[in-house]
Please model this.
Amino acid sequence: MELQIINENLSSKRDNNLLSIGTKQTGVNPKQVKTNPFIEANTIDVGLTHLQKDCNVPVFAKDNEMTLSHQEFIEIAYGCAEKVFKNQSLDTPEIRVSHQVKGRTPDAIHIPAKDLLDNQKTVYYERMAFIIRLPGINGTLKGNTNNLSLCLGGVRAYNHENLYSKKSIEKFKFFIGFQNMVCCNLCISTDGFKSEIRASSHQELESKITEVIQSYKMSEHLKEMTKLLDDSLNEQQFAQLLGKAKLYNFLPKEEKALLPEVILNDNHFNTMAKDYYQDKSFCKNDSGEISLWNAYNLLTGANKSSYIDTFLDRGENAYAFAQGISKAINGDSQYRWFLS
Model:
């Protein structure tokens, strides 16, 4: 079940065993609900207007050609979503930025920083992440009460560009997936994520974002997440998993090459261990068991401490890791090392 089919008739095409989908009428302005941030780390919340009116746009130094700005990326993604989801309302983009780059106008060169006026200061942000929720496509996995909302978003990091050269192809990260509204963690699948979209124009970026949206298989993603509800780890298995995950980064190169890649680090697994006992929504039960769905959400919650430029890649890796552990429980050998 692909998204472009769902949009033709959401109510009749949905799979009731996976997700109960609500629809909103065209033209309805959705109520903006204050939620926890989808990423934390060293980020701050900003509005699209701030990016449009208050921030400089970096250029390529050798030819003074403009980059595609953060706000343009958001506007293009929003426009793509409007075209694909014609009968759905979209929430206002939620935007997080980090690594502020400050400057000043030429007339303020000799003015002490404390005496600068607002019109003498310049600013832009090296890194930006955003999500856009589609509140009309939401529901719960069968057998679970966590509310999931379809969302899409992306990451732009100028530190991945060589701004000291001439204008060249620029790089963007983009995803479409679900947000668990209990904790605001993102659920990102492999087919709904592009770790590097390369584009040199608005039109090219729009075309590639649209392609990602249209190729995303929502039904398959939901089925795979539902499977995580069927498997669980006891306390010993969970402890074994965390211990092996920490050993992974210190394996000899030859041994590590034989295992699936894990790009999450010790800090993430330390947070996961703490929340195994303390998280109000996804902690262990009274017997010490934890479902893989809950363990996955502990991992995506820990990922909220990642920097913007690694956030989506690690989010997708967390999903692949949870899927792999599920397969290992059911006899698959690829991820078995983490539980043995």
In short: Confidence is low (pLDDT under 50) at residues 1-18, 20-31. The CA atoms of residues 40 and 304 lie 5 Å apart. The longest helix spans residues 308-329. The chain has two domains: 3-218, 230-338.
